[in-house]
Design goal:
Layout (H helix, E strand, L loop, with lengths): L1 H9 L4 H15 L1 H10 L5 H24 L2 H8 L2 H13 L5 H21 L11 H32 L3 H12 L8 H16 L2 H27 L3 H22 L7 H18 L4 H4 L1
Helix pairs in contact: 1-11, 2-9, 2-11, 3-9, 4-8, 4-9, 5-7, 5-8, 6-8, 6-12, 7-12, 7-13, 8-11
C-alpha cells in the first residue's frame, strides 16, 4: 500500500496503468512456468482459465476505475467490505446458512473497519471536488471488484481441489490472458499508452523504483494469497483473512502518516474488529475447525 499510494500521489490517474504493468511483471516473472506449460500442457482446463481471466480483469478494471474516480480513503474503506461481500455471495448463490454468532462477528468486523476508515478519511480540497454521482459510481465499482474477487476465491478453491494445486499456472494464464483486455476501447489510448511513453521518456527513476517495489510486493501478495485460497478449508475464513489484511494496510498507512495519530474512533474501530474476529472464529464447530 505504501509504494502504491506514493505513485498515486504523483499521478492520481494511474491505477489502470499500474494494473497493466503488474500484469506484464507477473507474466515475465512466470516465464519458467510458461515454458513448462508449453511443454507439458495445462493442469487446469482451459474453460476455467478463461473464467479466471474474466474475473481477474473485472476486479482490476473496477478497482482501478474506482480509485481513479473517488477518494482513496473511501475506496480503502470499501475494500474492507470484502468479508461481508463473501458472506452475501455465499448466502445468495450457494444457499449457505450462518448462525447468529457468525453474523454478529461479520457485523462487528464490518462496522469496526468502517468506523476506523472513516476516522482516517480526509475530504478533498481545492478545485478537486467530488459529486455524489462520482462517489456513488466509485462505490458501485468497488462493490463489483469485491464480488469478482469473491467468485475468483470460490472457484480457485473448487478447481484446485478437483484438478490439483497449480498456483503459478493460474497466475500466469490469468495475467497473460488479461493483458490484451487492457488494449480494448479507450483504455490504452486514454490512460495507459500515454503513461507508458511518459514513464519511459520522463526519466523519473525514483518513481520507477517505487513502482518496481510495488510490483514485487504485489506479486508476492498475489502468490501467497492464491496459495492460501487453494489450501484454506473455508471460503469465509479466506474472506476473514482478506478483511484483516486490508485493515492492517489501513493501520499501517495511518501510522506512517503520523503525526497526527488517528483519533479515538480509529482505535474504537480496531477494538470492534478484534472482538468481531474472536466472535467469528469461535463460531466454527470443533470438527470443521480441525
Amino acid at each position: 500500500m505504501v509504494p502504491y499510494n506514493m505513485v498515486l500521489k504523483e499521478d492520481p490517474g494511474s491505477p489502470l496503468f499500474i494494473a497493466f504493468v503488474t500484469h506484464i511483471f507477473i507474466v515475465v516473472i512466470n516465464t519458467p512456468t510458461l515454458i513448462s506449460v508449453i511443454r507439458n500442457g495445462l493442469t487446469v482446463p482451459v474453460i476455467w482459465h478463461l473464467f479466471f481471466i474474466f474475473l481477474g480483469f473485472t476486479f482490476n478494471k473496477a478497482k482501478s476505475s474506482a480509485v481513479a474516480r473517488g477518494p482513496v480513503t473511501f475506496c480503502m474503506l470499501m475494500t474492507n467490505m470484502q468479508m461481508l461481500t463473501g458472506v452475501v455471495v455465499q448466502l445468495v448463490f450457494y444457499g449457505q446458512r450462518y448462525n447468529m454468532k457468525q453474523i454478529t462477528g461479520c457485523g462487528l468486523i464490518s462496522a469496526g473497519v468502517g468506523l476506523a476508515a472513516c476516522a482516517c478519511a480526509t475530504p478533498k480540497v481545492g478545485d478537486d471536488v467530488l459529486t455524489l454521482v462520482d462517489v456513488g459510481q466509485s462505490a458501485f465499482e468497488m462493490i463489483l471488484s469485491c464480488v469478482a474477487l469473491t467468485f475468483l476465491t470460490i472457484y480457485i478453491q473448487k478447481v484446485f481441489a478437483k484438478h490439483g494445486e497449480a498456483v503459478n499456472e493460474q497466475l500466469l494464464i490469468q495475467h497473460l490472458g488479461g493483458v490484451p483486455a487492457f488494449l480494448l476501447g479507450t483504455q490504452w489510448a486514454g490512460s495507459i499508452g500515454p503513461r507508458v511513453k511518459d514513464w519511459i521518456t520522463g526519466g523519473n527513476y525514483k518513481l520507477m523504483l517505487i513502482l518496481l517495489s510495488n510490483l514485487a510486493m504485489n506479486y508476492a501478495e498475489t502468490l501467497f494469497r492464491t496459495q492460501m485460497t487453494s489450501r484454506c478449508p473455508s471460503t469465509s475464513t479466506v474472506q476473514l483473512v482478506e478483511t484483516l489484511k486490508r485493515f492492517l494496510n489501513l493501520v499501517f498507512t495511518a501510522v506512517m502518516q503520523a503525526p497526527p495519530f488517528p483519533g479515538v474512533n480509529f482505535w474504537l474501530g480496531s477494538i470492534m474488529l478484534s472482538v468481531g474476529t474472536v466472535v467469528y472464529l469461535t463460531s466454527v464447530d470443533k470438527k470443521k475447525a480441525e
